[in-house]
């Protein structure tokens, strides 16, 4: 059997029901003839919960189980998966995502067509219970879709352009030689706080790597009940805003200028959203929730109200 050209890394912890769904979706992927590929499941649970599922899984391509670390650390799981991966391209799929038909093929074709270093695609939500929460009836806060044409160049360091958002490991494919240096491309000190992918992609963008948007590479993400509360989303958005400010400054040649920009934007968000939140607070949640979240994002950039730790679901 030829060595794989593509490796799909799936980090996991304890959501075996969701992991089974992810693996079934991956087993249904089809790549152009002659493209060998594999799936690497990086198990981040001390009891290696995924081993029986992966080793007993019947699939047309190799599915391999890799023990990661004995403690919860998503960055370490990603790193162990990268080390075990044998492909020149490495895709990342989270254990709560199910790639739609043609997802991997679309990413690979885009990278080959453009010569880009990394491809990112949209994530569409489904919800435990069948419907989004009443405070977000359209599921807007659970969806990642930039609505950009194929091959649009992305730069996560841009604050204002749509191409500055939507860049994360979930539903991505990277050219290993240019995007995944060494044995630990993800910073493992961020293993509980998250943001290890944000820091990596900010660093790569600073180095001039070419990122593109691939709308045909779609995944569906399961959102269980623990994610469907406003408090969960507020904490997640605040933490993400904090990551954005911290890591932009970390990669900047003018760190104080980067901090000043982050603080200025954060203060403006609080100044705009706080009065609107108070004004609309008596209405339905869908009318004022975005202002509550706008305050959270502003406070996160200011370093307030953002716990840099795992957000419990």
From TrEMBL:
One of its GO terms (molecular function) is transferase activity. Residues 7-136 form the Glycosyltransferase 2-like domain. It holds the Pfam family Glycos_transf_2. It comes from the Bacteria. Keywords: Transferase. InterPro entries: Glyco_trans_2-like (IPR001173), Glycosyltransf_2 (IPR050834), Nucleotide-diphossugar_trans (IPR029044). SUPFAM superfamilies: Nucleotide-diphospho-sugar transferases (SSF53448). PANTHER family: GLYCOSYLTRANSFERASE, GLYCOSYLTRANSFERASE 2-LIKE DOMAIN-CONTAINING PROTEIN. This is Glycosyltransferase involved in cell wall biosynthesis. It comes from Roseococcus suduntuyensis.
